[in-house]
Structures are given as C-alpha cells and as structure tokens.
Amino acid sequence: MTANLFNASFYRAANSDLKNLTDAQALAHFQNYGLNEGRTFSPFVDLNFYRASNPDLEKAGIKTNKQLFDHLQKSGVAEGRRFSPVVDINFYLKSNGDVNTAFKGNREQAFTHLQNQGVGEGRKFSQFFDTGFYLARNSDLKTAFGGDRVKALQHLAIYGLKENREFSDFFNINYYRSQNSDLQKVGYQGIQLLEHFETYGLREGRSFSLTFDVNYYRKTYPDLVAAGLSNQQLYDHFQLYGLKEGRASSQSFNVKYYLANNTDLQKAGFSYAQAYDHFLLYGEREKRSGVTSLQSQWTRQFGTSGDDESFGVAVDGAGNVYITGYTNGSLAGNNSGKSDAWVAKYDKSGAQIWKKQLGTAGNDAAYGIGVDSAGNVYISGTTEGALKGTNSGGYDVWLAKYDSSGVQKWLQQFGTSTDDGSNGITVDNSGNVYVTGYTTGALGGASNGNTDAWVAKYDNNGAQKWLKQLGTSGDDESNSVAVDSAGNVYITGYTEEGLGGGNSGKSDAWVAKYDSNGTQKWVKQLGTSEKDQSNSVAVDSTGNVYITGDTEGALGGPNSGNSDAWVAKYDNNGVQKWLKQIGTSGKDGANGVTVDSIGNVYISGSSNGSLAGNNAGGYDAWIVAYDSNGAAVRKRQLSTSADDQLYSVTVDNNGNVYITGATTGAFAGTNAGNYDIWVAKLA
Q1: pLDDT for res 388
Q2: How do the domains of the chain map onto residue ranges?
Q3: Fold of 324-682
Q4: pLDDT digit string (tens) for 77-95?
Q5: 569: CB partners within 8 A, 6+ apart
Q6: Domain of life, per the record (predicted)?
Q7: Separation of alpha carbons 499 and 508, rounded Å
Q8: pTM (2 d.p.)
C-alpha cells in the first residue's frame, strides 16, 4: 500500500498564489514545480524534518525533495519513520488501541485513518501537538473554527508555528525559548524551536515546560529508573501512562495534588488529564497552586525583654539545628554588657538542647554559623571588646568553635586599629573553616580605601592558613561565604566602585571565587544605576554558584516598586546562567540562599508586601524555591501582625528547610519584648 501524502486543499491554503487551482491543477503544479520548490503540501508531512530525522537517507543518496517524497510514500511511513514534528504515526497507534487492533499495526492504513478520520475525531497523534489544546489555548481560533480540529491542524502548519502560539500541553515553545539562552542568541523561532527540541533538546534534558520535567520524572519514580528509559521514552511514558496514573511530573506541578485541592474540579468529575490541562489553560493564570506550599513542621520562639535576633542557621546530618545571633538581654546567662552573642542547638523535633551566651562589656554579635560532619559548630561575628586577648581597636573579628555538647573548643579574635567584622562563616568536609566580612583597615594587605572585603581560611584547630583582602577606593563589603567539594571558596557582597568590572550606579553586587590556596580565580559584578547588593551565596554539588540580594533597579526584570529581591545562578567559571527578580510595590529583600541535593534553590527574606502570600502587617518573612533552571516552584510567606524578619535559610539532605530571624510579634507563644528570636522547620 502506498501512502497518500498530498493534500490539495491544504496546498492551496498554504500557497496563496495557487488558491484558484482545481484539485487536479494543484496536484499537477505540485508534481511539476511545487515539490522541487520546497512548497508546503500537507499538514501531516514536512520533508525537511524527514531529511533531518533520518540521516541514513542522505547517506543512501536520497537527497532531493522528489527522492524524499517517493521514499516516504513507498517505504518511510510503513517503516515508522518520523516525517513531521507534529505527527508521529507510532504514537498514534500506541494512543489509539482500537486503531492499532483494526489495522494490526499497519502504519500506512493508520496514516490514512488519521488523515480521513482521526484528526476530526480528536484522537491523539503526537507527543508534541494537541488540536484540542491548541483551540482551547487560542480563543481566537476557537471562535473562528469552533471545534474543527482539521482546521486547527492546518492553521498550526501555516500560521501558528510562525506566530509562536502555544500548541501542546507537554511542550511549551515560549518556555523552551526563555529557558535556553543559546537558542535565543541564534534567533530560533517557531518551527526551529520545535525541531530543535525534538532533535536535540529532549535528548539533552533541556527544560521545556513548567509542568513536565523528564529529569524530575525519572528521579521521582524508582520504576522508571529501573527501566532505564531514555528522555524520549519518559516523555512518551508520562503521556501514555503516567498522567492517567496521577504521577507527579515536575517540581512545579503535581496533578494529584492539584485535583485534590480544587473541589470545583472534583465536582465536575475531572480526570487527571483534564486537571492537568485545566492548570495550563486556567489554573496558572488564576494563581492556583500546582504543588503543595512549604508547610511548617515546627516553630520555636524565645527572647528577653530587650532585643534578640537570629542571623544564621545550620543543620547537621542528624537533623539537629543550630542558630546564632545577638541579645541585649540575658538569654543564656548574664549579659556581659551592651549586647552579647549567643548560639543554640535544637534537635530535629524542635526541642532545645542547649544555648550559650558570650560577650564583653561592649557590643558583641554573631552573624554567621556553620556545622561540620562531627557536629562541631562554628560561629563568627564582631566584638567591641576583648572576647580573647586584647581588642585591636574599634570592632574586631572573632570566630569560635563549639563541640556538639556546646563546649567551647577555641576562640580567635583579630582586627586592625579601625573597624573590622565578620558577616559569614562556613566549614568544608575536612573541617577547614572560612570566614568573610569587612575591614576599614589593612587586615590582609594594604587598605584600598574606605571599607574593604576580606576572606580567611582556618584549620580545624583555629590556626589561620591565609587571609585575602580585596577592595576599591569606595566601600566594599563581603556578606557571605560558601565552599565547594574541591575547596574552592566563594564570597559575595556589594561595592561602590568597580570590583569586578565597571560600576553600574550607586552600589553593585559582586561574587568572587578563590581556590583552596586563596588564589583569586574570578570576580563578577552586576548592578543597575540604583543600589544593588548581594547578601548570601551558596554552591551546589556540581560547582554552580547562587547569590541573592536586593535591588532598587531592574536587575533581572522590571522593578516592582521600591526595592526587589533577586537571585542569580553562575556556573563554576563565573558565567551567569540566569537571574530572577521578584518584588511587590513595597520593600522586598533577600537575605539568604541555599541549594538542596537535587538543585532546588531557596531564597528567603522580608517584605512589607504580599510576595509569597498575604501580608499580615508590617514586614513578613518569606521563602521562594526555584528549580535548577530558575523556575519558581514553591513559596511561603510567614507572618504576624507585627514586624517579622527572616535572615537565613538552610536545607537538610531530606529536603527539609530551616529558616530563622526575628519578630516583634508572636510566631510561637508570647513575645518576650521587642524583637524575639524564631526558628522554623518547613517541608
């Protein structure tokens, strides 16, 4: 049986200069001219795609359009070869068991059935295109064509792809473009994007949809891992089986959750497939949640009648949680002076194990915390007095180590005759400790002017290995430090000049990488004409770097008003992969960033607007999770009617999230007075 590939009515519609030809004239024109000219002749066939998808044909000398057409008609359809980006005859047979049974798997007969009946009946014939979704997504076509799916297919082939219309519930052409900057740079549009995805993108595991991610789908289900399915097979599996079974399909969407949490869809008798499409067509626009929000597991609050704040949080392998900050009261012993530093430990259930307070007659505070694999805890901060030895002048830097029982093992203090402080600390797998901060003197080299940033490495016994100072003639400060598995060190902060390039305005954010010996590898600077700064840095298992902060400009999109929060991802060579900006009409800022074992990125901060939920009054705490491609997948706003600040976030190996800050309200219990400390576990 020879497959019929030519469609006279479509040929006229696709080629306006031929619109007055009869069917016979159209066929003659196609055979004599149109085929060689490469004209479109069927909504079901694309010879360029046939050529690209079947490289063996060119090797066999089948190169011209006439040769390709003849081969497809005589052999290609029967062999099950791909001949269109929007038609897959093998998928048609798999999706329509009655057709497969009736024709006993004969692809040529199935193709004839598809052309004559299948499209009109609304049958599925492609993993990449759905006529029903195309009509529903594009209301002008629904109005023009009613439910005519044949016209919908023809419209896609002639106009829709060129117009970058959305045509599939499993592949979003605009999302694919937005997530792949290399395709944007070469100017890919419409059919180019679809063909790239089918030929390369799916195999490469690129991001192509908010609601379906082949990498997430594989990782989530052990049976799929055991089956060793390719990305193409996973893509097909979800459409043929997984969606019907209600399987979760991406970090951003779980159809079972979506249906269970929308009673109107339940009452209407929606299936999982209908619920999936509802989210794409309506739910996302209506701001219905596609996944469960981060839920509180426990929250603890404590304080004195004075001001008490928590600036850092860490978690160990057993799920014990550590927080640190300052108090101007007697939080864990008598206050030594103006304000004291403190550190506390909680078990995984939220029971406080111990807390320690340390201070001098001056102002003392802890801003950073880290924990090693043995449960030793490291904190760092500033002191106006002498926590150990003699104060060098002004504020000094200090760092201390405590064992898992809260016994202090060592404390180091250092500084210049001017002001010095530490804003962050972390520890690597070998127990080396890294601290970072600011100095107005010459802490690790000559002062560059005003305030400089610095980073130092200590061994597990508190011996300094190296210290590096960097800065410009303006103010430069480092707010956070992270270390990767190879011992490379990353710091981030703000600069008023050109620390890693020209300054864009008032202050810019920056991030720098050092190797394990303290040699600087690169510095990257980013900013707008307004104030921008980075407050936190994290690194994942493959060396990607994440920084977050706030901006008064348009750093990663339009500014929502006043200051916005932002987060950026860099690869290990300092190449920016993406940058996201979020905000309200009020003041929003991000103070913390962390990344989990599968590449989800969490940023947290404070907002006096409704950034991740409804604002309850004053400033609220918030947290937003992004997947590795920069798509926001989960969020939560935590609040009282008073002011609530969130300063730090971390995550454990099980995906539980820990956040800490300060509140003038009552998150858990009664406020002791002014600002209280709080810490929460979310999942």
Answers
A1: 94
A2: 210-283, 324-682
A3: Neuraminidase (2.120.10)
A4: 999 999 999 999 999 999 9
A5: 544, 545, 546, 576, 577, 578, 579, 601, 628, 630
A6: Bacteria
A7: 9
A8: 0.72
